[in-house]
Amino acid sequence: MYKRGNESQEINQKYALQCFNEAKEALKNNELAKANELFTKAINLVPTCIPFYDYRASTLEKLGQLDDALRDALSMIKLDKTAVKAYLRTGKVYRLLNQTDKAIKIYNIGLSNVKIKDQYYKLLQKQSEELQYKIFKSGSSKTCDMMRFLPPELRDDVLKRLPFASLCKATAVSKTWRNYILSSAVLWRDINFERPLRNTNVLDDQTIRVYAKRGGRRLRKLICGDSPKVTDKALSALREIPCNRLQCIVLSDSNISDENTRAFVKTIGLNLNTIDFSKSDITNMTISVILSRCKHLETLNLSFCNNLTTEAFNPAIVDNKASKLNDINLQCCDQVKGNVIDYFIVLFPNLIRLDLAGISGLNTKYLDKMKNFVNLKLLRMKGDLPMEENLILEDAFEIFSSNCTNLCTFSLNECQSLTDNCIRKLVQSCSKLKELDIMSNIYLTDETMHLIGNYCKQLKVLYIGKSPGITDAGVINVIKSDCGPLLEVIDLQRNSNITDETLKEMGSYCKSLKETNFTWCKNVTGSGVGALVRQCGNTLKHLVLQECYNVAPDAIEYARKILGKNGIVSYEFRGKF
């Protein structure tokens, strides 16, 4: 109810103008919901002002509420049948609704009612002529966009099922689709710039700011991958919005400062459950902030963070609130030592995934202590595990394996003391193994392969290259075992014992094979390659034959022809035939 009299009318007009100006500013800043609310207030105060309806109709167009926008446009015509902007707005909305017949009709009504001297008369005439010419050229005025018939909730439900890259492409379908997609914050909750969508040289602060604004406060995931051009401005933009519901951030190899990372975590990082700041300059102080603030944290990737030390996880220093953390990646963190295991046992007893490949100071004592992680499903290590406290490696394997029976992925490369008996202890206890990486271990023999074939019934990935004790017989034993039809990846690189016999058996039994590596396998020839690709051509995606000097170029061309566009044959030879 509004005040009566001249005085109250002036007050209403003054307040309406104030709302109108604020709404225009909000519209300029792309705050569409706020602008719509303020334009509505202005109209309620002064319901006869055409510009108020015009601006609200424009805002509703951007929100994708085209039926409401049409209602405002028709109200403008009712208020003044000579207002050229009313006909321009109505015609535009009809065009967005793909109702071109009605758009032409409203343009023609406008041309008959508007004075020829009006400054926008020629524009109205031009719009009418262009639309009629377009229809004449296409041969039909009947087009149908099914999206406009769906309610906003259902439309969002359909579009949010698209992958992120496809959603971005869908904005180019039409102006209507673009308005639908850009005006919906629901569709921009999960932003993923990972390949194949983008190039690392393109992603920068401004790109992140634009897309994060689309998600606004509803943004849940921001996955950027390697982003060398991203700086502190990107995190500042996330704080300004603010994206305080963010649950996952992947921002590696960036130029973000350690100080700004801490400010980000303190302000809007409280709901994070996944953090990936790999290849960054993150320090112990920032880790302390993350562990004390992010109580929902489950995954933490700090690989190649060379400023981190073991003390970042010292329970005597850290006020740990991240009790749910179960996935830690410290790959190649040079200053982190093996005694970090002691800290993890106290802080994170429920670890499921642990990547320690490349850190120094690991030995049999720490492998033994990993028995405390009874829920462990993934463990990666690299390098030798020297004996400590008179505990030999075989005994350490037995203790570890008998407690961590849920292990699915195990990796131990370049361990000079790894033997067949160590593998025996592992595979007999861990029957759920699906991925096994034991490359570059010189004391392993075909006995290891027999053990894998007998016990690893679910194995899908096997890396066993650079192991000179492995021969055709051992590999064929695995191929013909229960896991043979399940194997997707086999790496046998730099093994001169492997011949065409292995490739032929692989083609016969490995019906799920996707990738295999025979680099420097000098006894592999074109005959074996041909047999393999003929049998596995439908599934094989990557065949590596680098420096296989007994494989002739015509065999390579034949393999590429069989694999087609969906497969890759990597081949390079610098020697002589």
UniProtKB/TrEMBL annotation:
<feature type="domain" description="F-box">
    <location>
        <begin position="144"/>
        <end position="191"/>
    </location>
</feature>
<dbReference type="InterPro" id="IPR001810">
    <property type="entry name" value="F-box_dom"/>
</dbReference>
<dbReference type="InterPro" id="IPR057207">
    <property type="entry name" value="FBXL15_LRR"/>
</dbReference>
<dbReference type="Pfam" id="PF25372">
    <property type="entry name" value="DUF7885"/>
</dbReference>
<dbReference type="GO" id="GO:0031146">
    <property type="term" value="P:SCF-dependent proteasomal ubiquitin-dependent protein catabolic process"/>
</dbReference>
<dbReference type="InterPro" id="IPR006553">
    <property type="entry name" value="Leu-rich_rpt_Cys-con_subtyp"/>
</dbReference>
<dbReference type="InterPro" id="IPR032675">
    <property type="entry name" value="LRR_dom_sf"/>
</dbReference>
<dbReference type="InterPro" id="IPR036047">
    <property type="entry name" value="F-box-like_dom_sf"/>
</dbReference>
<protein>
    <submittedName>
        <fullName>TPR-like protein</fullName>
    </submittedName>
</protein>
<dbReference type="InterPro" id="IPR011990">
    <property type="entry name" value="TPR-like_helical_dom_sf"/>
</dbReference>
<dbReference type="GO" id="GO:0019005">
    <property type="term" value="C:SCF ubiquitin ligase complex"/>
</dbReference>
<dbReference type="InterPro" id="IPR019734">
    <property type="entry name" value="TPR_rpt"/>
</dbReference>
<dbReference type="Pfam" id="PF12937">
    <property type="entry name" value="F-box-like"/>
</dbReference>
